[in-house]
Specification:
- The protein has 112 residues and is of the alpha+beta class.
- It is built from 2 helices and 3 strands.
- A hairpin with a 2-residue loop joins strand 2 and strand 3.
Amino acid sequence: MLQISQQVKDFAARARDKKLLPNEFDGGTITVSNLGAWGIDSFDAIVNPPQAVILSVGTIVQKPVVKDGEIVVGQRMNIGVSCDHRVVDGAVGAEFITEVKKLIENPALMLV
């Protein structure tokens, strides 16, 4: 996880500086679009071929939630998935986003 985090930060910095090489961002299957970093709650991301899936990630907001029968302040984040149905069946996309949700809600599972 640490190595992935370091590489993503390196790619992001070089992309902002327009120093990312084409062979470092082509040939992927899934794109992550994070407008949450700019305070966007929710949005619909559009798949750009040759990508097959794009995951949209919104900002984390505090909202009232019910926990153990009580209303408390909770953190919520909208995520969405768009699939090119010529490549990925919608049911597979739903399974993917369900797994992403599970891992975000229980990050320790990523270490198993």
